[in-house]
Design brief:
Blueprint: H1 3-9, H2 11-38, E1 41-46, E2 49-54, H3 58-64, H4 67-97, H5 105-112, H6 120-130, H7 137-143, H8 159-184, H9 188-196, H10 201-212, H11 214-229, H12 233-239, H13 250-259, H14 264-289
Antiparallel strand pairs: 1-2
């Protein structure tokens, strides 16, 4: 075959990748760039006329001087630190449980996957009814054991935990799918060999399951972190960031600044910082938990 034919072949992989690359640029990179640019602009409405002024870093200066921003950053950090290990631990435990051989395992797996098919807004509304402090199902249930009614979503101390419960119920089954796939991929011969050597279940988990499940756990950790950083639906529907700003996470503060107060400069500044913080945290996760490649050949 001619040399020109082989020279033209290099473009073929890029033609197949072109649709995904174009979509990534159009729907991911371009909005990030526009958001960063707009965060340097102050928009005002006077006399029915919109005025846009390029103010450089003034939006960020006002943001850093606002105690509400730091409170929202604190709540976002607390939410992420609490919810990530809870969701991943429960997802892993559920995946291990569903790996057990049973005649009805397919039916049991389907039941555990039901939350995946429920939209988050619908699940949030249902949980809001269940956690109602006066007529909620949860208070009715715990009352059977002599526990007094709890305020849940209207309590400064319990609202964030209630959000964590709702998000965990919705997310655990979804993340379990990836861990279950990772468990299914582990060769069964390894467990058979360890059984012959007299290894106990905990030793199997520590020396076989965890090391070979590392990639799946890392993926779930990164994806779960990114998802929880933009968790906002329960706050919009149930708490409006309250009570006493106890559930006012950064993404909800950005939403409120933009759509309630039309302060797009502040809103996009928060969004830009949230994106930067997410990238830094995910970068640390990939660096410290990712596979270290030996550079020596």
């Amino acid at each position: 075959m001619s040399t020109n034919f082989f020279r033209r072949q290099w473009i073929v992989p890029y033609l197949f990748l072109a649709p995904a690359l174009i979509a990534t640029v159009a729907f991911k990179l371009y909005p990030i760039f526009i958001g960063l640019w707009e965060s340097f602009i102050y928009t005002s409405f006077g006399g029915g006329v919109e005025k846009r002024v390029f103010v450089w870093l003034e939006n960020y200066q006002y943001l850093f001087a606002d105690p509400l921003f730091w409170q929202s950053l604190k709540i976002t950090g607390i939410l992420t630190i609490l919810i990530n290990p809870i969701q991943i631990s429960l997802s892993l435990g559920l995946a291990l449980l569903l790996m057990r051989k049973s005649k009805y395992i397919r039916i049991i797996r389907s039941l555990f996957l039901l939350p995946v098919g429920v939209a988050l807004p619908i699940a949030t509304v249902v949980w809001g009814l269940m956690l109602d402090p006066y007529q909620g199902l949860v208070n009715g249930f715990i009352g059977l054991f002599g526990i007094p009614p709890q305020p849940f979503l209207v309590s400064e101390d319990q609202a964030l935990w209630s959000i964590i419960v709702i998000a965990t119920w919705k997310g655990v089954a979804f993340w379990m799918l990836f861990l279950l796939a990772g468990l299914e991929d582990i060769p069964k011969q390894l467990y058979e060999a360890s059984k012959i050597d007299g290894a106990k279940p905990f030793q199997n988990f520590r020396f076989i399951t965890l090391p070979l499940l590392k990639r799946s756990i890392l993926f779930v950790l990164v994806a779960d972190t990114a998802t929880n950083f933009v968790l906002m639906v329960p706050m919009i529907i149930l708490t409006k960031g309250g009570p006493m700003q106890s559930t006012n996470v950064l993404v909800y503060e950005a939403y409120r600044s933009g759509f309630y107060y039309q302060d797009w400069g502040r809103s996009l500044s928060i969004t830009t910082l949230l994106t930067l913080i997410s990238l830094i945290i995910i970068g640390f996760q990939l660096f410290f938990l990712g596979e270290k490649r030996d550079e020596k050949k």
